[in-house]
Amino acid sequence: MALVPYEETAEKGLQRFHKPLATFSLANHTIQIRQDWKQLGVAAVVWDAAIILATYLEMGAVELRGCSAVELGAGTGLVGMVAALLGGGV
């Protein structure tokens, strides 16, 4: 496990996590997620891993239609939303 110190002004790439709204086009839908790093911390932003996994599911790599799916992530729930839009039940 690695601990990476976070400084708000250090990395410009992290500034997108401070935007109040993240918008994605996935599973033939536009998904908007409110983010709140300052009040709720790291669980209240959409991380790159969620975007990659949601895109992977959208590509049809896993057949979700008619299957039950449970997202065990710790975040905004983007992957679970995409799984549901692709036919996975909960």
TrEMBL record:
UniProt KW keywords: Cytoplasm, Methyltransferase, S-adenosyl-L-methionine, Transferase
- What's an example GO BP annotation here? methylation
As for subcellular location, the record says:
Cytoplasm
Q: Name one Pfam family in it.
A: Methyltransf_16
Instruction: Tell me which InterPro entries the record gives.
Output: Methyltransf_16 (IPR019410), SAM-dependent_MTases_sf (IPR029063)
Name a single GO cellular component.
cytosol
One GO MF term attached to the UniProt entry: methyltransferase activity
Q: Could you name the domain of life of the organism this protein comes from?
A: Eukaryota
Q: Is S-adenosyl-L-methionine included in the keywords of this UniProt record?
A: yes
* Catalytic activities: L-lysyl-[protein] + 3 S-adenosyl-L-methionine = N(6),N(6),N(6)-trimethyl-L-lysyl-[protein] + 3 S-adenosyl-L-homocysteine + 3 H(+)
Q: Where is the signal peptide?
A: none
> What does the similarity note say?
Belongs to the methyltransferase superfamily. METTL21 family.
> By what name is this protein known?
Protein N-lysine methyltransferase METTL21A
Q: Which organism is it from?
A: Monodon monoceros
Q: Which gene encodes it?
A: METTL21A
